Amino acid sequence: MRFLGIDLGTGSLKLAILDENGREIAIASAAYAVTSAQPGWAETPVDTWYAALVDAAARLPAGKREAVVAIGFSGQMHGVVPSAANGRALRPAMLWPDTRARALLDAWPEPQPNPVAPGMAGPLLRWLVTHEADVAGETRWALQPKDWLRAKLGGAFVTDPSDACATALAHPSGEWDDALIDKLGLPRAWFAPLAASHEAGGVLSAQAASALGLRAGIPMAVGAGDTPCAALGSGLSADGDALLTTGTGGQIVVMCKDAPAPAHGLHTYRSATGAWYRMAAMQNVGVALEAVRGWLGYASWAQAYDDAFAADASATVSFLPYLSGERSPWMNPNARGGWLGLGLDDTRGTLMRAAFEGVAFALRAGLDAIRRNGAALDSMRLAGGGSVDPRWRQLLADALQVELHAVDCPNAATRGAAMLGGIAAGHWRIGDSASLAPHATLAATPRANASLDARLARFIDLYRRTEAWF
């Protein structure tokens, strides 16, 4: 008995097969690019997603694919796929880094129960009805990315609370905010009915099964957003359990038994299990470091790491990583980044080291917002492909002042998705997540570092001083 998890990410699609004991026995992935037809746009043609799924599935062992009895989904959050009645996408998907709707946020005046960013479905759909009226006129469904993919495979047009509550069109509980949708002039019928993440959301069609090498008719769980799936797959279950994920962006997730009070710059969302989580979401982690690596001409990440951590940290060079605006804690879509304090004697390694520190400091700013609102965190689980190098892990622990426990699961969101598939098939129950938690090892213990603290203070001061420029 095998369970397949599909994680539809921003820059790649990942697959994982779990056995009946929750062990990962096969993985595969396929990468793709985010396109930008105009400045500030972030899109992906949805056919790219499906082609990546077929490609990745072909890399899984045929025997393990044939044993799959259920599928679960994890997906990048916030973006939207305007679709026809049969699920055909009417334009490329608009994604969470997109800033085209930043001038349209007046419909969400502060205070809001959750921060609203221009790359969320609400602002993007408001932009759509104004600028692409022909597409809006044909739209029957405004789908979250993972919901579009599930429908493409033969599933139902449904969504789950963890994804719905992050659209800026629903209450924190995940229920659609009919009054707001009406105020925005959006058709209520665009928004799919809600179902629990672990409920069955249709079965795999014969056509999709043939393309993927799977059995037709197997159940597909509704699924959840990638962050709640990563929390589930990483073993977060109890109130106060915390997780740091580092990928294209970065998230600090803290599980909550009850809904926490709203706080500026922080998100309060539903989890994949129906509980809650508080989150600081930082946009510029892997995306900023990848940009810097390219600008500085490093051919490999190994070279970039070696150069950066061989260089002495500079007391004068700071890097603001806000290349695509920022969410937590600043909620400033216009923020921009760069190096400040450069001198003629600074090296490429100095600049790369400052970039790593700048990203760590941006994560610290989000964590401090959580701490100010009642969560005294001194230990977190660590997941994500951008957190493997031990030198980077130590810098994160020192900058965040937390003990980091690395989850023995590089594909936490994909694993969480597969677990939802197993629950939908009746193999596991929603309360089994703690017993299925992957092993976590102590990755880094925070050290006192007065000079790092001084550079952190400089970083915050520089952001405050440059904030008015944007």
Structure description:
This protein has 470 residues and is an alpha+beta fold. It has 2 domains: 2-227, ATPase, nucleotide binding domain (Nucleotidyltransferase, domain 5, 2-Layer Sandwich); 235-408 and 439-470, 2-Layer Sandwich (Nucleotidyltransferase, domain 5). Helices cover 33% and strands 20% of the residues. The protein has a 7-stranded mixed β-sheet. The chain has a 5-stranded mixed β-sheet with strand order 3-2-1-5-11. Helix 10 (286-295) runs antiparallel to helix 12 (348-372) and helix 12 crosses helix 13 (390-400). It is globular, with a radius of gyration of 21 Å. The N and C termini lie far apart (54 Å). 54% of the residues are buried. Belongs to the FGGY kinase family. One of its GO terms (biological process) is carbohydrate metabolic process. InterPro entries: ATPase_NBD, Carb_kinase_FGGY, FGGY_C, FGGY_Carb_Kinase, FGGY_N. GO terms for molecular function: kinase activity. Residues 245-425 form the Carbohydrate kinase FGGY C-terminal domain.
Summed up, what is this model?
The termini are far apart. By secondary structure, the chain is of the alpha+beta class.
Characteristics of this structure?
470 residues, alpha+beta, Nucleotidyltransferase, domain 5, 2 domains, seven-stranded mixed beta sheet, 15 helices, 20 strands, FGGY_Carb_Kinase, ATPase_NBD, kinase activity, transferase
